[in-house]
Amino acid sequence: MRGVVAALLAAWALIAGVFAQDDDFAAPPAPADGILDEARMLQRDPARHRALAESLADLEAKHGFRMYYVLYDTLISSSAGERAMKLQQAWLGDKPGIVLVLETDRGIFRFGQAMPKQERIGPIQSLERPDPSSLSAFALADIIRTIEPKLKEAKDRGEFSEKLGIGVAQGILQELDKRAAEPQGGTRVRMVILAIGLIAGTGLAALLVVAGLKRAESKAQERYLFPKVNVGMRLGAPYGGGKVSSRSFGGRPQG
Prior knowledge:
Diaminopimelate Epimerase, Chain A, domain 1; 6 strands
């Protein structure tokens, strides 16, 4: 029994140490070519590494959008999403760009990018105003949905890593090309329409709340009055109705 307890304590200490180590995670210097291969997946095939680096460089050259691609075998003390956000904060900050983290053993990948800025549109209201090059969750989901068939065809982890990195980089490039082709001022018009819709929705919600309060107040003030009913004389008695019952105790007297 003592041996089991000692083993459990040792395991707990090891887990606590691992999580404490993740809290002290220090991001390494940003890779010059945008690829940090901690899983040594691309080192086995330099051609794949070059193809990925060219895709990332093409994206940055055309739109000034920096994408970092980070590969780990497995993250024990952190999740892919948490590590992506930490690396994004260390490498990009508020600059346009994104960090893609892949766990090659499990095929799990997550993104990290700067949070959209808040723009005040009223005394108490604010609206998210994303950077023109920021990508929404819907845009990223569309990119992944587009490359998903190719990912399923990957024969090994190396091919999966290559198709994921290049596919995401090309998807972001196409999305930013589409935005660049839009007329100037289109983004501003969308923001104005969205702000108007937000204000109108807030006003409608306020009207519904006021109407509900008034309805509740009127119900609280309601009073119910029952009319007086005149009952006629019954059998000469001043009141009518009632029940009559009799009770007897003991036996009848003998005689």
